[in-house]
């Protein structure tokens, strides 16, 4: 279980690097089509997100941090640590991953490559913000960690 926790914590940095790759690609290549290296940046970030999702779901259903949600929902919501890991973190991440997935899926089906790039970027940017604030950073939460 500890290995999965460390993998889950460490993978967040690869995901954030992927989001930065997408952002800098968009800034530098705003008027380019959604193909080649641009599409690869979006795809690799989305793959990291889905791997993170699988690890996160295993941890969610096996972790003591979220087990209280299933035992006593009312008491779990009264505890900030349990509420965060049991609900806020999970819901925020699911929304962020869904937005990124929809952004990539819609963009790859669009015929106008430049418009597709902008559409994917918009949804990835929203996903990035939601995911960033849903991570248990030590500067955002009293119980967050760097790794």
From TrEMBL:
Keywords from the UniProt entry: Membrane, Transmembrane, Transmembrane helix
Transmembrane feature ranges: 12-29, 41-61, 81-102, 123-140
Domain of life: Bacteria
Membrane as UniProt keyword: yes
Protein known as: Cytochrome B
Upper lineage: Bacteria, Pseudomonadati, Bacteroidota, Flavobacteriia, Flavobacteriales
């Amino acid at each position: 279980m500890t290995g999965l926790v460390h993998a889950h914590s460490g993978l967040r940095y690869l995901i954030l690097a992927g989001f930065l790759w997408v952002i800098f690609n968009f800034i530098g290549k705003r008027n380019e089509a959604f193909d080649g290296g641009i599409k690869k940046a979006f795809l690799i970030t989305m793959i990291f997100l889905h791997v993170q999702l699988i690890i996160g779901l295993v941890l969610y259903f096996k972790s003591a941090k979220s087990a209280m949600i299933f035992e006593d929902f009312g008491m779990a919501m009264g505890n900030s640590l349990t509420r965060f890991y049991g609900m806020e973190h999970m819901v925020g991440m699911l929304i962020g991953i869904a937005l990124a997935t929809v952004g990539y899926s819609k963009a790859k089906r669009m015929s106008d490559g430049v418009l597709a790039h902008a559409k994917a970027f918009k949804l990835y940017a929203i996903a990035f913000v939601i995911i960033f604030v849903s991570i248990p950073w030590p500067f955002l939460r009293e119980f967050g960690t760097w790794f």
